[in-house]
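Example record for the data management plan.
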Amino acid sequence: MKYSDLYRSCLANFAKGNTLVPFIEGKPGGGKSSLCRQIVRDMGIAPERITEFNPSLRDPVDIMGLPITDGDYSRWLPPQEFYRIRDDGTDQPCALIIEELSDAPVPMQNPMCRVILDRQAGELKLHRKLFIIGSGNSTEHKSGATRMTTKLSGRMQNLTFDENLDDWCDWAFDAGIDLKMIQFLRFRPALLSDFDANRKINPSPRTWSMANEVDETLPSDLYFSNIAGCVGEGAAAEYTGFKRIFESLPNIDALLMNPSKAEVPEDPAVRFALTGAIAERSNKGNFDRVMEYISRMPSDFQVMFVLDATRQDPSVRNTKAYVQWTVTHGNTYL
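Corresponding structural encoding:
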């Protein structure tokens, strides 16, 4: 399932109650953790009532707690994470996000069974309105995940996370990812997530986000090395090549001076780069001329452009060119 489908279904199920515990499994670096946090955040649960717990980094005693022997019998002092989501007598919901659950060894999986099914951490009763969601990598990708016991997986709703380019692009625009990178991955969608356990470095939504932080003013050879350190040499070579195309595009203002006769490139890579560059420069004042040029491109590039331009500047929806275009392409665009 893609990000948006998982998001929508988890929120819908949680609206019915907290019994169902989704476990989201997929490739490393796909955005599973971000999805879990967004779901919990958008449920409106107060930040101080949200606990993140990574069982692969902890011992069973971190669920049971530490023994106190200052009386006639020992008692257990619960850890802070679980004490925060205890049954405190209030009606305010709380949440537990379980990170890297599939990396946890069996001794840690066993106490997690009771946390998930019985809402009990050792002797500590957890909140009756506790919502639990977990994520982890799949064993097939050989990234450190171990086989999850049947008794643990049988206590959860097991969902598979599949990276989706449209979802990532929606996120990337809001997150301020460089337009060149967005257009490149539209041109080469297979490189959004290309995991190979035999490679040390792989392109993934997470590593592309890291690559976006590399300083573009670095010398070209140093810039390439920095990008390769995030997504691997193969993906870095393709991206830096695309970036050179983007940066060598004709002057957009000059192109829009004569939109009916300006050259429309045939190379798909140049088309991806050019439509992105024009979308970035589009506004209500120039949109009629912009659409005169863009309408000479294939329809799939037109749709991509209009989506980007309206996201960049929603006011272009109030232009005559936009209205005319949607009338003609409404079935494709909507």
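Summary line stored alongside the record: The chain is about 50% helix and 10% strand.
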